[in-house]
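Human: You know discrete backbone vocabularies at least as well as I do. Show me how you would write down a chain together with its backbone fold. No explanation is needed for now; the record alone will do.

Assistant:
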Amino acid sequence: MRKKLWPLHWPRLETSTFLLTLAALLATPTPSPGASPDWLRAAARAPLPKYVDDTKAAVLWSEETHRVTQAGEVRTAFRKAYKILQPEGRGLAHLRVDFDSETELTYLKGWTITPNGGEHEVKEKDAVESALVADALYQDTRFKILALPGADPGSVIGFEYEQKRRPWIREEIWDFQEEIPVRRAQFILELASG
């Protein structure tokens, strides 16, 4: 049985949506030379313990911050960094973020720090967008895929995105474990006064 390496769950896709998704995964965006954020550089410098030889990658940093306003709006910021250890870990360089009419994607960026210290930035404009189900009459769920170049063994990759929503249910599910080792994971909840 093959293990899933994707950061988020992939639902069943129709053929046209699958082809667009496949094109996004195969397309290599033109990266901008850019400075990685401090949190990603700090994660890249942190020493890793010795893992078994077939470990594909490790999560260096996983952070989820939920800010709840007085009006009930929730802004959620996600940060995640991986160290690619084996060629099989390259699949982690593709992030998929879902959104719909009630969940707005307000920010999306990604970075690669290569083993020789080179840094590349990929922005939301480089992402490929599609619907979950093609030609659905009442379906408004969409997703964006951001692909990072240079995700070779020894590289550190990182993503950052933010969503704004007004949830009907005041409940969050936090996945702090994955199929690969997790070095650091944190969940932050900031509530409005009162």
The chain has one domain: 15-191. The chain is about 10% helix and 40% strand.
